[in-house]
Amino acid sequence: MLSEQKKKAEEKMNKAIEVLRKEFTSLRTGRASLGMLDGITVDFYGTPTPLSGVSNMAMPDARMITIQPWDAKMLGEIEKAILKSDVGITPSNDGKIIRLGIPPLTEERRHQIVKHAKKLAEDARVAVRNIRRDVNDDIKKKSKDKNAHVSEDEIKKLQDEIQKTTDSYIMKIDDLLAHKEKEIMTV
Questions:
Q1: 92 vs 65: CA distance, rounded Å
Q2: Would you give the distance in Å from CA 138 to the centre of its chain?
Q3: Which positions ≥6 away from 59 have C-beta within 8 Å?
Q4: How far is residue 4's CA from residue 136's CA, in Å, rounded to a whole number?
Q5: Per-domain residue ranges for the chain?
Q6: Tens-binned pLDDT, residue by residue, of the chain (187 aa)
Q7: What are the residues facing 64 on neighbouring strands?
Q8: How open is the CA angle 85-181-67, to the nearest 5 degrees?
Q9: Which 8-state DSSP code applies to residue 59?
Q10: What's the maximum distance between 2 C-alpha atoms anywhere in the chain?
Q11: CA distance linking residue 118 with residue 138, whole number of Å
């Protein structure tokens, strides 16, 4: 029973880390990244479809993304979707391919992005701590159950293990943030 609690906690904490990684990929770093376009959906004949579902996307160099729609009629829709998104890049269209030139970030914009990254990391830390709290509450409830037959030493040991696990996931979040911060601030 108690080891199941620990496994569930680790699974949930891993999910929190994965969510953070995914959110970090959508942050602009001054370099082209297809992850920047992940949240963009295009109206594909009345159906909202991810950009990757209606086109081929490529990065010919570090500051350029090209989008080649499978259907040439989609060029206008893709441009509209990119302009409506918060990517902050104006697309250029030559009739066949949409090009997104990634301008270098200003120092002020870099600091804003780092600030946003720190907020995302703090949200992940809070999620991990909430998982710890929920597991500890669950352990306390089960320890009060007369049929559980769990000693106080076992409960204390598991709570210590959950705390160590929480600390290790917080360290992973801090490492991810440090890496992303360095990536954003690199000119």
A1: 11
A2: 28
A3: 32, 33, 34, 65, 66
A4: 13
A5: 2-26+106-185, 34-101
A6: 567 888 888 999 999 999 999 888 877 777 777 877 888 888 888 888 888 888 899 988 888 899 999 888 888 888 888 888 877 788 888 888 999 888 887 888 889 889 999 999 999 999 999 999 999 888 888 777 766 677 778 888 888 989 999 999 999 999 999 999 998 888 6
A7: 61, 101
A8: 35
A9: E
A10: 73
A11: 30
Which CATH number among 3.30.70.3040, 3.30.360.10, 3.90.1300.10, 1.10.132.20 corresponds to the domain 2-26+106-185? 1.10.132.20
Whether domain 34-101 has CATH 2.60.40.1840: the reply is no
CB 58 within 8 Å of CB 65: yes
Give 108-119 pLDDT, tens digit per residue: 888 988 999 999
Length of the chain: 187
Neighbours of 85 (CB within 10 A): 15
Residue 159's contacts (CB-CB under 8 Å, 6 or more residues apart) are 136, 139
Distance CA 165, CA 132 (A): 9
Supply the pTM of this predicted model: 0.73
Distance, CA of 131 to CA of 116 (rounded, Å) = 23
